[in-house]
Automatic annotation (TrEMBL):
It comes from the Bacteria. PANTHER family: CELLULOSE SYNTHASE OPERON PROTEIN C, TPR REPEAT-CONTAINING PROTEIN MJ0263. TPR repeats lie at residues 7-40, 109-142, 143-176, 226-259, 328-361. The keyword Repeat applies. This is Tetratricopeptide repeat protein. It comes from Phreatobacter aquaticus.
Length: 387
């Protein structure tokens, strides 16, 4: 067998492994073929494909870029280079390449999607939203365009608009656990907005219950979807079902990496079940993993206050407020810590800040009233903050 014939045999074996998604073996076959037929464009193109499929994006990009430079008409290499640039976190290069793909009319849907992703990497959300919309005009049931467009709106806290897109994705792709998880996430955030003081619109459904239904739908599709278990846990917490929430969080912890949000959720569930000392462990781990999440510090501070660690609780609530001074729960928690430290006047000032943020915050109002009774001092009036 000649070297050319052997190279062809290895190349075909690599294509077979690529079809079987055996990427490491396909890479081995393509590299062996290249040793016998160096420079062969078809082998190099498929090697770039299989490298990108394994996350070896920079090598894939280098090979594909060389191929395009040698033969600008190599559309497959251009597509590989554009995708590899996106995955290698080179959005400027990705944008340049995807625009060439679009100009050549090779794959308009894929090009617009790649352009959207590049703009999103660059932080140009207006342009990204427009590009995802162009994808959806060309293919209304495009799952990832709808979800990614919704994710940008979600990050902008436009939860109702995000929900509309997620519902569209789920309606077009009812077998997608990802779409149902996204629906659940948006509904849960709408429920949390209500809890934080936003008034429900007339006839507005129970978003916490609907979010749980969405997560359960996702789990009926994929029982190993850790994000669905985590979301279900938070929905159950919102509904006051702490025992069920704890089971959901434990399922998520058994399936995937231990994120700060997941550990904070488990901590809250244990706390709600009256197991405050157990709650300290995941609570501390949560703020260690993500010290820039104010909600984790607020939850930890509440637990520390309940377990007799008022000084530590005050530090935690102050960490939360340094990150986000608009957290009514952190101001309330700060008041509780100060009250336990026998600093009632400062506690009342903290409760006042909570009530200034949410005049209907009954817990803070009750805490303020109780602190006034403890103080027994008419110098601090119980009139509450100005609205």
């Amino acid at each position: 067998m000649s070297e050319a014939e052997r190279a062809k045999e290895l190349f075909l074996a690599g294509l077979d492994q690529l079809d079987r998604r055996q990427f490491a073996e396909a890479e081995r076959q393509f590299r062996a073929a290249l040793e016998l037929a160096p420079g062969r464009a078809s082998i190099r193109t498929n090697l770039a494909v299989v490298l990108a499929d394994q996350g070896k994006n920079r090598e894939a990009l280098d090979i594909a870029r060389d191929l395009v430079a040698e033969d600008p008409s190599n559309d497959e290499a251009l597509l590989v280079a554009a995708k590899a640039a996106s995955d290698a976190d080179e959005p400027d290069e990705a944008l340049r390449l995807w625009k060439i793909v679009l100009e050549r009319d090779i794959d308009r849907i894929r090009a617009h999607f790649g352009i959207a992703a590049a703009y999103r990497q660059k932080g140009q959300t207006v342009e990204a939203l427009a590009a995802y919309e162009r994808v959806l005009r060309l293919q209304p049931d495009h799952l990832h365009a709808a979800i990614n467009r919704g994710n940008i709106l979600f990050e902008q806290e436009k939860f109702a608009q995000a929900l509309e897109l997620y519902r569209r994705a789920a309606a077009s792709n009812p077998g997608s656990a990802l779409a149902w998880i996204a629906v659940g996430n948006a509904r849960l955030r709408l429920a949390q907005q209500l809890r934080a003081g936003r008034k429900p619109a007339p006839g507005e459904p129970d978003q916490a219950d609907l979010s749980l239904q969405a997560y359960k739908r996702a789990l009926s599709i994929d029982r190993n979807a850790a994000d669905a278990w985590q979301g279900a846990g938070f929905a159950q917490l919102a509904a006051g079902a702490a025992a069920e929430a704890l089971r959901s969080f434990d399922q998520a912890l058994a399936l995937g990496p231990h994120s700060a949000a997941l550990l904070a959720g488990k901590s809250c569930a244990l706390f709600d079940l009256g197991r405050a000392r157990e709650a300290l462990v995941p609570g501390l781990k949560a703020v260690e993993l993500d010290p820039n999440e104010p909600g984790g510090w607020t939850s930890l501070g509440n637990i520390q206050c309940d377990t007799g660690q008022a000084a530590e609780a005050l530090v935690s609530q102050d960490r939360a407020l340094a990150l986000d001074p608009s957290l009514r729960d952190a101001w309330n928690g700060r008041g509780n810590a100060l009250r336990n430290l026998q600093r009632p006047r400062e506690a009342i000032a903290a409760y006042d800040r909570a009530l200034a943020l949410d005049p209907d915050f009954a817990v803070a109002r009750d805490n303020r009233a109780s602190t006034l009774l403890d103080l027994g001092d008419e110098a601090v009036t119980p009139s509450g903050p100005a609205h």
